[in-house]
From TrEMBL:
GO terms for molecular function: ATP binding; transferase activity. It is an enzyme of class 2 (transferase). It catalyses: D-maltose + ATP = alpha-maltose 1-phosphate + ADP + H(+). It comes from the Bacteria. Residues 34-126 form the Maltokinase N-terminal cap domain. Pfam families: Mak_N_cap (PF18085). This is Maltokinase. The keyword Protein biosynthesis does not apply. Its EC number is 2.7.1.175. Keywords: ATP-binding, Nucleotide-binding, Transferase.
């Protein structure tokens, strides 16, 4: 098995940490093709100009061997370089059994080091490496490194006595790597790295330590690289990993909602509109849990107590308004450009929807600009930031909210900016709209139905579910609501965030799922209609945005 294309070096594995030439050769040979096959590498579509190993951390394994945590720098023709975590182990031929267990996606390549043939692997597939990480967290270890130290921190959720659990890598296909310990703890190793604590660690640690909200997996610990410069001065922390309690679950809420919609679908051809009561119960429960999460994140400073500035609520300042408007305007420009570039690839119905979006440009811009001066007394807090049905695990009777990393397109600093929690609410409402649209317009059961009728059925399901979610959500705080001034502010903010989310999604779908582009476009147009109503009722004239037939999402005959 290990006979071809061995990359030779005279340095023994443990000594390679200081052999710069060795790593330079690797970044020119084995690493680029390997990294480009990895799900976690986000630079595949960009013009790459090369990789380099920026930093190497060493971890001593229980048997005296060593694994390295490589910080890889990926450079591109345009834009700033990115940094990725790649832990590596070297398994020699003698460990034939272990070698056989390494999946293809963990095999970086064959090497011959100091006369020993072996395989360079992603160390997450090395049980010894996983064990060292977990033990270091359990023991709150700090391990000095050439460029600072690795600080392992144990959180409240990691129980006494759980220091010797067997581990395995989880087959989740995501942008990070997941492993479990004793099927009780879930360790996420972050792959794309940022200078600043990952918002997920902030949020999960805060909710575990400072609140009674139990519908997140409790915080079990973190792995932080405390960087220093060559002169010993400190640099921003880099989060490498986080442990949480493992949540037994069959599925996430996206799948669960899909199951409910399958039941609903059977009645549709018979012109029967039936949503089971337990579906409403679940939607209500999720609204309630969402409200409770925001309640837990709302931490007004009490008299005599020091303010926790990272989580203290803030008003809608001019600075925030300017930030949101600029971000929205930039997003809109990028989306219009993307839509124009891809227009001819869209089917005729998507093209019609795209036209309405184009025609509404001026009205959307005016609506966003309103945000600069409109009086707003609601408050902003830290929020989930990327909230949708896929981020909620469904347990037997309840829900557990995961993935607090925030919006993937935003910088880490942006992800920590406080927003109205209605941004999360808008995320979930968009998700219900996605769920019903994707199901009703892509199923054989509804293939032959009149598209206008189908659109009405879809809208009815969506409005009922949306209102159920929203009512249950708003009920959590009671009246007067501490975070929202009044219904008019709630409506305005919801529209802004719904629009922003749908415009964001438009880009995601053009890039990843062109057949679904119609879903966010329909979401945008629904908001445009609402804006029209508001402006007309305020006595404004509105630009002439064309009306459309219903049946907007139907792909048949396109
Ligand atoms: N605490 C947990 N317990 C059980 N499964 C989890 C837990 N956290 C995440 N998962 C599973 O791992 C998947 C990826 O987790 P997520 O936090 O969304 O990572 P990523 O940011 O890499 O997408 C989730 O969709 C879920 O299936
Ligand atoms: O990978 P992430 O969870 O960070 O989110 C990205 O991918 C999501 C799709 O997996 C995407 O969500 C969109 O599609 C969902 C259905 O697949 C739907 O429930 C969401 O409402 C919709 O936004 C998300 O936008 C993107 O950031």
């Amino acid at each position: 098995m290990l006979t071809t294309n061995l990359l030779p070096s005279s340095t023994a594995w443990p000594k390679t940490a200081s052999d710069t030439a060795f790593w330079t050769i690797l970044t020119q040979t084995l690493l680029p093709p390997y990294v480009n096959t990895c799900r976690w590498f986000a630079g595949k579509a960009r013009q790459q100009t090369g990789f380099s190993v920026q930093t190497i951390h060493s971890l001593l394994l229980p048997d005296g061997d060593v694994s390295f945590l490589l910080i890889l720098e990926a450079s591109y023709a345009d834009g700033v370089p990115e940094h990725y975590l790649l832990p590596v182990s070297f398994l020699t031929k003698t460990g034939a059994e272990e070698l056989a267990e390494i999946p293809q996606k963990g095999r970086i390549g064959e090497l011959e080091l100091d006369g020993q043939a072996g395989l360079l692997i992603d160390a997450i597939y090395d049980e010894r490496f996983r064990q060292v990480l977990f033990t270091a967290i359990y023991q709150n270890q700090t391990i000095p490194q050439a460029t600072g130290k690795l600080a392992f921190h144990r959180g409240k959720g990691l129980e006494e006595g759980d220091d010797n659990l067997t581990s395995r890598v989880l087959p989740v296909d995501s942008s990070n790597s997941a492993m479990t310990f004793g099927d009780k703890y879930f360790l996420k190793l972050y792959r794309k790295l940022f200078e600043e604590t990952n918002p997920e660690v902030d949020m999960v640690a805060f909710l575990t330590d400072e609140s009674n909200f139990t519908h997140i997996p409790a915080f079990g610990g973190s792995i932080i690289w405390k960087q220093t410069n060559a002169d010993g001065s400190a640099r921003p922390d880099v989060t490498l990993g986080m442990v949480q309690r493992m949540v037994p679950n069959d599925k996430d809420s996206w799948m669960q909602t899909g199951d409910y919609l399958n039941d609903f679908l059977y009645g549709v051809p018979q012109r029967m509109f039936a949503i089971r009561e337990d579906v409403f119960d679940k939607v209500e429960l999720l609204g309630k849990r969402t409200g409770e999460m925001h309640c837990a994140l709302y931490k007004p400073t009490r008299e005599g107590e020091p303010a926790d500035l990272a989580f203290a609520p803030e008003p809608f300042t001019d600075e925030y308004r300017a930030f949101l408007i600029k971000r929205f305007e930039d997003l809109l420009e990028r989306r219009y450009a993307l839509l124009i570039d891809n227009y001819t690839k869209l089917d005729p119905l998507a093209q019609r929807l795209a036209w309405v979006f184009m025609e509404a440009k001026e009205m959307i811009e005016t609506f966003i600009a309103d945000f600069r001066t409109r009086p707003l007394d609601s408050l902003r807090i830290r929020i989930h930031g990327d909230y949708h049905l896929g981020q909620v695990l469904a347990t037997a009777t309840d829900f557990v909210i995961i993935d607090f990393e925030g919006e993937p397109e935003s910088t880490i600093t942006e992800r920590k900016i406080k927003h109205s929690p209605l941004k999360d609410v808008a995320g979930m409402i968009r998700s219900y709209h996605y769920a019903v649209s994707a199901k009703l317009f892509n199923s054989t059961e509804t293939d032959n139905l009149d598209p206008d009728h189908l659109q009405r059925v879809s809208d009815r399901w969506f409005y009922l579910i949306r209102d159920t979610f929203l009512d249950a959500y708003l009920d959590v705080f009671g009246a007067p609501h501490p975070l929202f001034k009044n219904n008019s502010e709630i409506n305005f903010l919801l529209l802004i965030y719904l629009l922003e989310k749908a415009v964001y999604e438009l880009g995601y779908e053009i890039s990843y799922r062109p057949a679904w582009v119609k879903i966010p476009l329909k979401g945008i147009i629904d908001v445009v209609r609402e804006i029209e109503k508001i402006r007309l009722s305020d006595g404004h004239s509105v630009p002439d945005v064309p009306m459309l037939q219903t049946g907007l999402l139907q792909t048949k005959g396109a």
